[in-house]
Design brief:
It contains 17 helices and 17 strands. The protein is an alpha/beta fold and about 450 residues long. The protein has an eight-stranded mixed beta barrel with strand order 3-4-6-7-8-9-10-11, surrounded by five helices. Strands 12, 13, 14, 15, 16 and 17 form a six-stranded antiparallel beta sheet that branches.
């Protein structure tokens, strides 16, 4: 069989307003199977002059250092041997019936070709359009029957839902619940692209969240995105989902993804999509080698951070001793506050309440204040006990604490805070200094 023998070249116009029984037959598992054949060990399908088949891209677990799943991707070739992008293929479906037929044909190909892999454990990641799932209910049962016929357990299927494909949240939840009840795992695809938000994660409760490639690209080129990325991953984990970074194409992107705490990783750097009978084990040595480089990467990153702050920490310790010896804070802080990027010094009592005013440099003292920040400029009786730098200083007497960069509410600037528990007579206090963490200081 070399073509869709039961589908004429008139683009299925005769099915425009068909009897529902005929519609179900047309999109049934048997009809879909009839549009395929085995060629050189692969299951291929035919649609409007195109030959369709599957490629697979491994998804690696960083912890296990091996593939734990494979994403199925459509490959389409026209009569001239040209590769046709999947989006163009789906645009060729002119009506709802054709769209359902093509969607089911692709899933059939992916499941059948996946079963040719020598793997009876890993997940199969399948992209689903939720709207097709909703409309497909009127065309008879398909996916559950497909899995049952070819004995592929639903728990080995990861359903990738494009969260922005349906704006109606209730419809999206309904489509997702169908596959969840079937026993499949749920993944949100391309999170971080378009109008992604955590509301969808909380509503859909997916097992896996796939981060769009744009995130790792920005993290590689923008220090601030790179710094925030681990917090994003933590939020995903705390929401009850595992995380997957897709589109990783370089070693540096892989190292940054590893440093973020990501669970799974996918991309050309590890393995390009390939036919199902290709060997996906050729890069199994890559992850162990990457772990060796990751150790060096994290040590280098930590060393850079310490080097950038070395002069600040040295003068900070000297300043703290001067304050403990009884020298007024205004005088003790002179040498520290004149360092480039030093913003302010201040002292907190044991309860975290600020004692006195901020000690600032001459330049900052005479700078014109941003009138938009006037409501938060008065720090009289301000309490900083919720800040990590305060709590860590209280818990670690004698050791200088260095915060991660964060947005200061005092000046609305990114800063790093040095903090140290000190003794003034019988009183326990915490001495703090803020350092502006701007592009010049944090540049790599």
């Amino acid at each position: 069989m070399s073509a869709l023998s039961s589908i004429p070249d008139t683009s299925l116009e005769r099915f425009k307003l068909p009897d529902m029984h005929l519609v179900s037959d047309f999109c049934s598992l048997n009809q879909i199977a009839a549009a395929t054949e085995t060629v050189n060990g692969y299951i291929v399908g035919y649609f409007k002059g195109l030959t369709l088949t599957s490629h697979f891209q491994p998804i690696f677990s960083l912890t296990h250092k091996r593939p734990v799943g494979y994403e199925a991707l459509l490959r389409a070739i026209n009569a001239d041997g040209e590769l046709i992008p999947p989006l163009i293929v789906f645009d060729m479906a002119l009506n709802e019936i054709e769209t359902i037929f093509l969607d089911r044909l692709c899933r059939y190909l992916h499941v059948r070709n996946f079963l040719t892999l020598d793997d009876d454990i890993s997940w199969l990641f399948l992209n689903f359009n939720p709207m097709v799932t909703i409309k497909g209910k009127g065309y008879g049962v398909f996916f559950a029957e497909l899995l049952k016929r070819y004995e592929l357990p639903p728990y080995r299927i990861v359903v990738e839902i494009l969260e922005n494909s349906i704006q109606d949240k209730n419809l999206l939840i309904g489509a997702t619940d169908y596959y969840r009840k079937l026993g499949c795992l749920i993944a949100i695809d391309d999170f971080g692209a378009g109008h992604s938000n955590f509301d969808r994660i909380w509503s859909l409760n997916p097992q896996i969240v796939k981060l769009d490639r744009s995130i790792i690209t920005q993290a590689t080129n923008n220090y601030h995105v790179k710094r925030v990325l681990p917090n994003l991953i933590n939020l995903i984990h705390e929401s009850g989902s595992l995380s997957l970074m897709e589109g990783v194409e370089t070693e540096r992107e892989a190292l940054i993804a590893m440093d973020s705490g990501i669970d799974f990783i996918q991309g050309y750097f590890f393995c390009k999509p390939a036919p199902p009978q290709s060997s996906f084990n050729q890069n199994l040595t890559l992850l162990p080698e990457l772990y060796d480089k990751f150790k060096q990467f994290t040590e280098t990153e930590a060393q850079k951070y310490q080097e950038k702050l070395h002069d600040f920490v040295t003068r900070f310790k000297i300043t703290a001793k001067l304050i403990e010896s009884g020298i007024p804070i205004e005088q003790a802080c002179i040498n520290f506050i004149e360092l480039p990027f030093s913003k302010r010094c201040y002292v907190l009592n044991e309860a975290g309440t600020q004692l006195g005013v901020n000690i600032t440099s001459n330049a900052d003292r005479h700078a014109i204040a941003d009138p938009r920040l006037k409501p938060i400029t008065d720090i009289h009786d301000a309490n900083w006990s919720r800040r990590h730098y305060f709590r860590r200083a209280i818990s670690n007497p004698g050791n200088v604490q260095i915060s991660r960069p964060y947005l200061s509410i005092t000046g609305a600037n990114m800063c790093v805070t040095l903090s140290l528990q000190i003794r003034i007579g019988r009183e326990t206090q915490v001495f703090c200094c803020d350092i502006e963490w701007n592009e010049a200081l944090c540049a790599e």
